[in-house]
Amino acid sequence: MPKELLIQVSPEIAANQLLLLDHVAKLICTSVPEIQHISILKRSIDARQKAIKINLKINIFFQGEDFAEEIPQMPGYPNVSNAKEVIVVGAGPAGLFAALQLIELGLKPIVIERGKDVRGRRRDLKAINRDHIVNEDSNYCFGEGGAGTYSDGKLYTRSKKRGDVDRILRLLVAFGASADILVEAHPHIGTNKLPQIISDIRDKIIECGGTVLFETRLTDIIIKHNEVQGIITQNGDKITADKIILATGHSARDIFELLDRKKILIEAKPFALGVRAEHPQELIDKIQYSCDYRGAFLPPAPYSIVKQVNGRGMYSFCMCPGGVIAPCATSQGEVVTNGWSPSKRDQATANSGIVIELKLEDFKPFAKFGALAGMEFQKNIEQKAWQSAGQTQKVPAQRMVDFSQRKISSDIPKTSYVPGTTSTELGDVFPGFLTQTLREGFVEFGKSMKGYFTNDAILHAPESRTSSPVRIPRDPETLEHLQIKGLYPCAEGAGYAGGIISAAIDGEKCALKIGAVLKGL
């Protein structure tokens, strides 16, 4: 039997298999030749003390014991060319994993995606970065793989109760992700590697008889007697099916407006909004690792911080060590920021959304929009930012201390945000309560992280697409919409997930519910 052990080692030992082997042998009072192999099951960093340690959960295999490296395999996906069809709207993680699950169940997914495939999206990302041109159907939010494809590929989730996280991670490894994601406490694929995995998933869906249609936007849902019968696309094409998984993401405002026009029940939902703060990565390393130089064996340091300020939560969101800030507008006339990191996290800067939790009462100035009040609140700030920065994809920016002291920064250094910045007073972009909370909150952040509150940090505004401003209510058991039979609101856009893993889990859950109805499972 392999011996399972929890150990703490230095970063250098954790990074070197021979040093680890020697350390473990001494720890369990045996000789190195007696150990056949050490498997690392889980790995995390303990930076609470000045001497940083790596926590390892390991399995020790001794000579003579059976050992084989386990490689996650794909399920035996059947051919579903002639099977019952289910429409999946959106090719983000929810839609793609829903499609895979449908195939496993012997059902045929018809996946429609308003944006382009991963390769086609690159040209549109270049256009928004270099030329300030926003393609409203193909951008950082819309297109194959969804918002996560080109905005980091973080796989960490706190949603352990929502479903089988390991299943999603193992499927990703089967489709080409590094097996390290099964081990790391905060797994991350990287924006540079995720597109190939996404395209391989699409190829598998098509190989099994499923359909994937790009540049195909839903413009209407066909409903008769409160039951779905199909959809209409922007070209007037009709696709029929009596089961629809609606996995359109948190930025599909036209879908929210469509549902509102058709009197299909939706609800305003609180979300969080703020800025994206960029620091030198070296400074964050110094704060988090309590050292002047992190060395060769530690990764760029992340951070996570939460404060209560003026009765509201203020917290870091989607923190990207060694990463860059990206322009994530989905329409002309608005500015939106987000962040991402390549797999090596080797950029010189660290960035994070720093956001304030909003309440439904904050949306009262937009009450005439009903369930879309939060969305209009969000749009208003994004449009103000666009106006403030010069009506391009440049963002309003301010040094952190200057912002807290109500000073317009005399200069803004070049940041990782490619379209550029315009020095402004960010208080002109946000409503007063949000501005004041941010100002006070950054001072509080600096008390917890010595050195964080600095004018070397540049604030970019706004970070506004943290989650959907709308919830599409569904039955907690069947996962169908409360009014419309056969409509399955899913994942981030419907208000039921937040991130790649939780969205993928929710996509699978919706597919399984449909399978239970159609296949009698």
From TrEMBL:
It comes from the Bacteria. It holds the Pfam family Pyr_redox_2. Residues 85-252 form the FAD/NAD(P)-binding domain. GO terms for molecular function: oxidoreductase activity. This is FAD-binding protein. InterPro entries: FAD-binding_protein, FAD-depend_C, FAD/NAD-bd_sf, FAD/NAD-binding_dom. Residues 270-466 form the FAD-dependent protein C-terminal domain.
